[in-house]
């Protein structure tokens, strides 16, 4: 746009000078800082502030170059808006000072001495290089920047993979490539993760779920490792500083302010590989903590609006981290909605997993709402219409809503009951055959009013034991976290297979591998959406630490040497994922009813025990078999093979009678976890026909997967 064209715009004319800068009344929407012809428009909300100043810094300067007070006429309702002309946006950092009452009993905590970050800042500096010590005396540690949205997405469009067809891979941006063995050019970054896309593609996953990537401060953990004295970090990132800004410390280019482009490039390249991106988002609390925490933005702008407060003005703590965001306040609802719309429209994000999502349906006084307006808005928002929404349907204050989360026909849930059932069954606990059967059928007891894809099935996640540790430790070992092993869950439902920790016994190691395969086999043949924790496919260990939130070291990082060392487990996982993709009967969204709905002569699902068609639901039973009829795949819309899964959690082997198949068909062996490699695993589509078609001998602590298809001729 030429100077002449700029001057022809009415809104490009300054109307006055403030602090030596040419300005005019700004536009209240959108909030934040946005380039406009000739300048930058700044807009910030505060309902109870009595005055507001815009604070301008040159990039990296310790002191501001100017502070511009918003005149009363620049305020519309509760929004202060001003356009400032002739700014060098690329060399600019900005913040606000909000003046007003300081009376915690009424919820007000204004402090004009604080420079506040913009809650809508789309770029934040101050933690540009991971772990680098900042200037702790900085008057403004988390600095809002102006972002030019000029990224070239090319022909990138949403992949639109049906939810039921997803195989989710949960990983940590830094931890995935930070280990020295990763071999990438920029370890621990978005760029490093991009170099590992071929690995993800070979694994077969079609969705990555990234732990928090919104800007956070990894240095806000006060603890040290009691053994080494080394600083512990806030490694996971569940302490959001800025919700619209990607984490600069995760970018190889973060020190140049290019983190947005680097992250967008990662998303674009994942999409080109057929992989969707889901972000783990934290709207239940912020990095400001309780009344003893730092004032960063929300607290200083409008504490009583953004946080749930007791009648005495103290912070409700349903998050377990000091504060709770007042999500169902209309202003905060708008903030959350605007944030998610932004990540979908500007970063092409495919979905979100909401941390401690039960908080999102609490009223300002903490009581659960029967019809939470935020959840309803998110479910029906036109921009988020096809975005995946996944709830962690519980919170730190005991509100547990698995199966009862207000879903509006749109939300899926992390199924914590699935996790516990699989762990306990494989461990060998009695009385769980019926429970496991229900979970493998998509948990119709929990999601009967929804589809099976409402259940995100998982055995492990970032929070808890890895799969390897689940079969290697009876107890958590979190001493390195500096909390005397008090942190982390105690109800792990784990079994160390006879020896705590690393073992020299070949028998113990073989049993552990078998148990890991068993759980992966159950996970990837269950109805619902499977989620795999990064590294489980190669037996990654955290040495029994089930709360690695603070461990930015080899304890948490993905050791790429395991790809070769545990190649057998990796190949097993790869082929299991391929098997799931090849068999739509495993991805049917309708809950099975146990009857023939398509005239195939077989029920959609049938249950078996040691005897075919005779399941044993008794308390002492540890054997269950299930068969899915391929004619019922996707509600009968597509044809598939029959699939039989037999699971033996007993310490003794069993001869299983197999259900019969249609004339001309026979059972073929895909996988048997009791057989030594390579005999216990076939390539998908190349399974060998059983020599004894009516029976199968299944070893102890083992799982078998069979495919029923036409007998080979010739």
From TrEMBL:
Span list, region Disordered: 476-506
Source organism superkingdom: Bacteria
Keyword Cell membrane: no
SUPFAM superfamilies, sorted: (Trans)glycosidases, E set domains, Glycosyl hydrolase domain
InterPro entries: GH, GH13_cat_dom, Glyco_hydro_13_N, Glyco_hydro_b, Glycogen_debranch_GlgX, Ig-like_fold, Ig_E-set, ISOA1-3-like_C
UniProt keyword annotations, A-Z: Glycosidase, Hydrolase, Transit peptide
GO biological-process terms attached to the record: glycogen catabolic process
Gene3D superfamilies membership: Glycosidases, Golgi alpha-mannosidase II, Immunoglobulins
A GO MF term: isoamylase activity
Record's compositionally biased regions (Basic and acidic residues): 476-490
Sequence ranges assigned to domain Glycosyl hydrolase family 13 catalytic in this UniProt record: 170-580
CDD domains, alphabetized: AmyAc_Glg_debranch, E_set_GDE_N
Family: Belongs to the glycosyl hydrolase 13 family.
NCBIfam families referenced in this protein's UniProt entry, alphabetically: glgX_debranch
Name by which UniProt lists this protein: Glycogen debranching enzyme GlgX
């Amino acid at each position: 746009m030429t100077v002449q064209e700029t001057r022809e715009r009415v809104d490009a004319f300054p109307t006055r000078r403030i602090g030596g800068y040419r300005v005019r009344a700004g536009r209240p929407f959108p909030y934040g800082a946005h380039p406009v012809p000739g300048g930058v428009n700044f807009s910030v909300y505060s309902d109870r502030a009595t005055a507001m100043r815009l604070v301008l810094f040159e990039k990296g300067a310790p002191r501001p170059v100017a502070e511009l007070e918003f005149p009363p006429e620049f305020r519309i309702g509760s929004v202060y808006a001003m356009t400032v002309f002739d700014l060098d946006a690329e060399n600019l950092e900005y913040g606000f000072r909000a003046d007003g009452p300081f009376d915690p009993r009424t919820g007000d905590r204004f402090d004009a001495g604080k420079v506040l970050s913009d809650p809508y800042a789309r770029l934040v500096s101050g933690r540009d290089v991971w772990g680098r010590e900042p200037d702790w005396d900085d008057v403004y540690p988390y600095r809002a920047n102006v972002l030019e949205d000029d990224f070239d997405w090319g022909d990138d469009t949403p992949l639109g993979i049906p939810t039921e067809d997803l195989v989710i891979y949960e990983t940590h941006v830094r931890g995935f490539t930070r280990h020295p063995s990763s071999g990438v050019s920029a370890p621990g970054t978005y760029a490093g993760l991009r170099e590992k896309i071929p690995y993800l593609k070979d694994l077969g996953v079609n969705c990555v779920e990234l732990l928090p990537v919104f800007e956070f401060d990894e240095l806000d953990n006060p603890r040290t490792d009691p053994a080494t004295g080394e600083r512990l970090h806030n490694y996971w990132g569940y302490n959001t500083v800025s919700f619209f800004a990607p984490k600069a410390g995760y970018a190889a280019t973060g020190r140049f302010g290019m983190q947005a482009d680097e992250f967008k490039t990662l998303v674009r390249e994942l999409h080109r590989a057929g992989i969707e991106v889901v972000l783990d988002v934290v709207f239940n609390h912020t990095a400001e903590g309780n009344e003893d925490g730092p004032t960063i933005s929300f607290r200083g702008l409008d504490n009583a609006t953004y946080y749930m407060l007791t009648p005495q003005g103290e912070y409700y703590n349903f998050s377990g981290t000091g504060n709770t965001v007042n999500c169902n306040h209309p202003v905060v609802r708008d903030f959350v909605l605007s944030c998610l719309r932004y990540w979908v429209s500007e970063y092409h994000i495919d979905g979100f997993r909401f941390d401690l999502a039960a908080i999102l349906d609490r009223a300002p006084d903490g009581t659960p709402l029967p019809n939470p307006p935020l959840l309803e808005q998110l479910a029906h928002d036109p921009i988020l219409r096809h975005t995946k929404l996944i709830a962690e349907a519980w919170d730190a204050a005991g509100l547990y809503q698995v199966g009862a989360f207000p879903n509006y026909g749109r939300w899926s849930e992390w199924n914590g009951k699935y996790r516990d059932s699989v762990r306990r069954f494989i461990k060998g606990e009695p009385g769980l055959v019926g429970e496991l059967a229900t979970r493998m059928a998509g948990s119709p007891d929990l999601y009967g009013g929804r589809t099976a894809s409402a259940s995100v099935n998982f055995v492990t996640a970032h929070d808890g034991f890895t799969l390897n540790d689940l079969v290697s430790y009876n107890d958590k070992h979190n001493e390195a976290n500096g909390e005397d092993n008090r942190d982390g869950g105690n109800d792990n439902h784990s079994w160390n297979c006879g020896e705590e920790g690393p073992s020299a016994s070949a028998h113990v190691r073989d049993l552990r591998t078998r148990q890991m395969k068993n759980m992966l086999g159950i996970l990837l043949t269950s109805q619902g959406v499977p989620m795999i924790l990064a590294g489980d496919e190669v037996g990654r260990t955290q040495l029994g630490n089930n709360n690695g939130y603070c461990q930015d070291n080899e304890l948490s990082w993905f050791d790429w040497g395991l790809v070769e060392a545990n190649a057998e487990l990796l190949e097993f996982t790869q082929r299991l994922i391929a098997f799931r993709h090849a068999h739509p009967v495993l991805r049917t969204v309708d809950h099975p009813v146990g009857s023939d709905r398509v005239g195939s002569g077989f029920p959609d699902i049938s249950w078996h025990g040691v005897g075919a068609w005779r399941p044993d639901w008794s308390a002492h039973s540890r054997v269950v078999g299930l068969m899915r009829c391929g004619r019922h795949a996707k509600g009968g819309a597509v044809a598939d093979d029959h699939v039989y899964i037999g699971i033996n959690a007993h310490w003794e082997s069993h001869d299983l009678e197999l259900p019969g198949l249609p004339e001309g068909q026979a059972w073929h062996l895909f996988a048997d976890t009791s057989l030594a490699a390579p005999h216990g695993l076939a390539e998908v589509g190349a399974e060998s026909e059983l020599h004894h078609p009516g029976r199968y001998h299944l070893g102890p602590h083992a799982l078998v997967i069979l495919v029923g298809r036409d007998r080979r001729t010739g």
